[in-house]
Design brief:
By secondary structure, the chain is α/β, with parallel strands linked by helices. The protein is 40% helix and 16% strand. The relative contact order is 0.15. The protein has 2 domains: 188 residues, 3-Layer(aba) Sandwich (Rossmann fold), CATH 3.40.50.720; 123 residues, no CATH class. The chain is built from 13 helices and 11 strands. This is Nucleoside-diphosphate-sugar epimerase. It comes from Granulicella rosea.
């Protein structure tokens, strides 16, 4: 049976990819700091750190992998130190590449991010445009890309993706969903006409699997198509929820100033990337992945966000009781946003 390794396979997207690979007939090995709740045929899971060279040596020694899907990453809004985030995302990526080289695994798929930018470039962003991250997570993902470039013997396919959405995606989205479910006003900054692209997790998993038949290294931008305004996305969720929630506007300049102050005081889960992009357009140019992989998206922003909301609404109580899970699989702490909810 063809075998693959997934790092971060206990997390939100890693778990989806893991299950898709199993369904496609692969034997899957998972490494994650978080325990894997799945016990499935042809799945072997290791709870451990990707920076643990001895653990990696044991895992790779168990058998030849056709490919490694490197999905593991620590997030800026999780409760970890900056040094730990950088070490996990950068040093961990290097350890994975070194283990691939030592074991003769020639194919690695790296999940990167649109957080490599934090400004509206005024057009769809192509793969050859110079990144300019403004916060630690984005810088760590960019450095991860640079680390992998030091391994020319590996066929590395990097997929830069926007926010990944599906049933089960929580984190900061859970805050939005709580406002809507409780019938509160949902705030946009400015007029809410800015367009921000997402990617459906199943579509991203499809792209990852398609890379198994791709020759050589490459870099792809991925995302949904027919991207509408954030206001329209929120209105679609509210319509599906059937609550008294409504979209309301906050003035752009003072709101962003307040978000910056809240971040400085460490009382908000929103960081520099969020307050820079909250009222801006950002869309990837996806022509390269369409042409070279034959990939196509299946869900729009509205459709995938409604799916994610319904998951939250169906299991809200259990979701808020979660502890030992990945950052995307539990609600983010509201911090000062709780005050905004009280007055909404």
């Amino acid at each position: 049976m063809r075998r693959v390794l997934v790092t971060g396979g206990s997390g939100f997207f890693g778990g989806i990819l893991k299950r898709r690979l199993l369904a496609a007939g692969y034997a899957v090995v998972n490494i994650d700091l978080v325990a894997d709740v799945d016990t499935l045929p042809n799945l072997v899971s290791h709870q451990g750190d990707i920076r643990d060279a001895a653990l990696l040596a044991r895992v790779f020694a168990d058998g030849q992998f056709e490919a490694v899907f490197h999905c593991a990453a620590m997030l800026a809004h999780d409760t970890i130190s900056e040094d730990e985030l950088w070490s996990s995302n950068v040093d961990g990526t290097r350890r994975i590449a070194e283990a691939c080289r030592a074991a003769g695994v020639s194919r690695l798929v790296f999940i990167s991010s649109n957080c490599l930018w934090a400004s509206n470039l005024g057009h769809e962003v192509a793969e050859d445009e110079p990144p300019a991250p403004v916060e630690l997570y984005g810088r760590s993902k960019l450095e991860g890309e640079r680390v992998l470039a030091e391994f020319p013997d590996l066929a590395v396919v990097t997929i830069r993706c926007p926010t990944i959405i599906d049933g089960g995606r929580l984190g900061l989205l859970a805050i939005l969903f709580e406002f809507i479910l409780d019938g509160k006003r949902v705030w946009v900054v400015g007029d809410g006409q800015n367009r921000y692209q997402f990617i459906y997790a199943q579509d991203l998993a499809t792209a990852c699997i398609q890379t198994l038949g791709y020759e050589g290294s490459d870099l792809f931008h991925i995302g949904s198509e027919n991207v509408v305004s954030l206001r329209r996305v929120y209105e679609a969720i509210i319509a599906a929820a059937g609550t008294k929630a409504r979209v309301a506007e906050l003035p752009k300049a003072p709101t962003i100033a307040a978000m910056k102050l809240a971040h400085t005081l460490r009382i908000s889960p929103l960081g520099p990337y969020h307050y820079r992009m909250i009222a801006e357009d950002f869309i990837f140019d996806t022509r390269r992945i369409r042409e070279r992989l034959g990939w196509r998206p299946t869900l729009t922003n509205e459709q995938m966000m409604v799916e994610a909301f319904r998951y939250y609404a169906a299991g809200r109580k259990e979701i808020h009781a979660r502890t030992d899970v990945s950052a995307h699989s539990k609600p983010a702490a509201m911090g000062v946003i709780r005050l905004l909810k009280w007055i909404s």
